[in-house]
Design goal:
heterodimer; A: about 120 residues; alpha/beta; Transcription Regulator spoIIAA; 4 helices; B: about 130 residues; alpha+beta; Heat Shock Protein 90; five-stranded antiparallel β-sheet; globular
């Protein structure tokens, strides 16, 4: 099973999704991230999806779930880098990712997390 | 007039990924805009997953359409699963019989120009979607 790498930067965790994930991989990322948050006591998670050409309801749910799990583990999540075509499609699909903090790019996302932790 | 016709299996997570990559390639060949490509790929991903998760696996068939110079892509997702007893309820936002968000069928319909579903309990499910350039 291929894992999505999770980078630790001080109190933050950084995840860059660079592959067209199959469903099992998305679920694995959920597991890996929650384990990493608990292990390192991370206060923030940044998920960069700038390489993703598509977000469907499964991946949308995975992102919502990660954000909820992280919150319960006392970590904030910021989703960054969504492509405009993906945002348009996601909203039309019926998912506007309520309650998920977003930023346009990694730099702004990091700034947002650093302000909050 | 159909200018090409082919199909791919949907029996695993990996084959869902391959199916959406195929749809991406087809929409690019047809000259769809980036937003239209993304809508069709996303709709295909939802329906491919439905065929796998609820239908126990199936296949995706594609047809490139040319209607007097207007080009389009028609995709058919079929499985031999249990079928859907009440299509009207299944098409409702938020309704799910399984682990999903319940946005698959209703969401996919909003992303395409034409949407048809043919299903009966015990007779499998066939969903056909078309998007024009």
């Amino acid at each position: 099973m291929q894992h999505i790498p999770i980078l630790r930067m001080g109190e933050l965790l950084l995840v860059t999704i660079q592959v067209d994930m199959h469903d099992q991989m998305a679920l694995q990322l959920q597991d890996d991230l929650t384990v990493a948050i608990a292990r390192f006591g991370s206060k923030g998670v940044l998920i960069d999806i700038s390489a993703l050409e598509m977000v469907d309801s499964f991946i949308g749910r995975m992102i919502s779930d990660i954000s909820g799990m992280a919150r319960i583990l006392d970590a904030a999540t910021v989703l960054v880098g969504m492509r405009p075509a993906v945002a348009i499609t996601l909203v039309e699909l019926g998912l506007s990712l309520p309650g998920i903090a977003t930023a346009l790019n990694v730099e702004r996302g990091m700034a947002l997390l650093r302000r909050n932790v | 007039m159909n200018v090409a016709l082919d199909e791919a299996p949907l029996r695993s997570d990996h084959e869902i990924v391959l199916a959406r990559q195929m749809v991406r390639r087809l929409t690019q060949e047809l000259g769809f805009s980036l937003v239209d490509q993304t809508k069709m790929v996303t709709a295909a991903s939802e329906l491919a997953r439905n065929a796998l998760v609820y239908g126990g696996g199936g296949r995706m068939k594609w047809e490139l359409l040319d209607n007097g110079g207007r080009r389009g892509l028609k995709l058919t997702f079929s499985d031999e699963g249990p079928g859907i007893a009440n299509v009207e309820i299944a098409m409702t936002d938020g309704w799910t019989s399984g682990k999903g968000l319940g946005m698959g069928l209703s969401g996919a319909r909003r992303l395409v120009n034409q949407f048809e579903i043919d299903t009966r309990p015990g007779a499998g499910t066939r969903v056909t979607i078309t998007r024009w350039k």
